[in-house]
Amino acid sequence: SAVISQKPSRDICQRGTSLTIQCQVDSQVTMMFWYRQQPGQSLTLIATANQGSEATYESGFVIDKFPISRPNLTFSTLTVSNMSPEDSSIYLCSTRGALYEQYFGPGTRLTVT
Amino acid sequence: QQQVKQSPQSLIVQKGGIPIINCAYENTAFDYFPWYQQFPGKGPALLIAIRPDVSEKKEGRFTISFNKSAKQFSLHIMDSQPGDSATYFCAARERSGGGADGLTFGKGTHLIIQP
């Protein structure tokens, strides 16, 4: 399975600011995904990011709030824009393996004050 | 609408027992069903997964049972150990021609294995 790293591992941010989360994979992958996990809750898919195309967002998530970049086959970023306390969550990136399996990074723990 | 319903929410089992976690779904377009284990402060780790064309899959101490007609699947942990104490999530992937391949997760089960 791919080794996935995320930066930063955690951050505390002020309301109204933006944070960009980086996801790095140790091998080339076609599909990358971004999920949100609110405290003590399950994971919710934010968007799918394929290299060379626009990210596909799930219902309830919009590009203006969560812009995503996918400049190459090993890297992606997710920006959480104009943050509010409700954005306090763990943000996780994942990649798809050879079949349907998905592997997750360690997550970025965001607290918005 | 919760597409994957997971139960129980929490579970306490004695060491050596067999915790069973259940999931149910309605969407017949789901075609891949993984289970994840998550420890506090870590990302979810893929444990085991199954396709709907098989009724059971075993990997080590972990077994998935799948009932396609009932649209239910479950995780069994054999000879459970305190180190298995974690949150477990079931998930499902929807067969799609549009390239979207993300997973829909259950709400999770907080499992405690008592020594």
Q: What is the fold-level CATH name, i.e. the topology of chain A?
A: Immunoglobulin-like
Report helical residue fraction of chain B.
under 10%
Averaged pLDDT of chain A: 94
CA radius of gyration of chain A: 13 Å
Mean pLDDT over the residues of chain B: 93
Please give the largest β-sheet of chain A.
7 strands, mixed
Which stretches of chain B are poorly predicted, pLDDT < 50 over at least 5 residues?
none
Corresponding CATH architecture of chain B: Sandwich
Report Rg of chain B: 14 Å
Explain how this protein is built:
The complex is a heterodimer of chains A (113) and B (115). With 113 residues, chain A is mainly β. Chain A contains no helices and 11 strands. Chain A has strands at residues 4-7, 10-13, 19-25, 31-37, 43-50, 56-57, 68-72, 75-80, 89-96, 102-104, 108-112. In chain A, the strands form 2 sheets. In chain A, strands 2, 4, 5, 6, 9, 10 and 11 form a 7-stranded mixed β-sheet that branches. A 4-stranded antiparallel β-sheet of chain A has the order 1-3-8-7, with no helix packed on it. In chain A, β7 (68-72) and β8 form a beta hairpin. By secondary structure, chain B is an all-beta fold. Chain B has a single domain, classed as Immunoglobulins (Immunoglobulin-like, Sandwich), CATH 2.60.40. Chain B has strands at residues 4-7, 10-14, 20-25, 30-38, 45-50, 56-59, 62-67, 72-77, 86-94, 103-105, 109-114. In chain B, strands 2, 4, 5, 9, 10 and 11 form a 6-stranded mixed β-sheet that branches. A 5-stranded antiparallel β-sheet of chain B has the order 1-3-8-7-6, with no helix packed on it. Classes of the chains: A mainly beta (113), B mainly beta (115). At the A-B interface, β4, β5 and β10 of A face β4, β5, β9 and β10 of B.
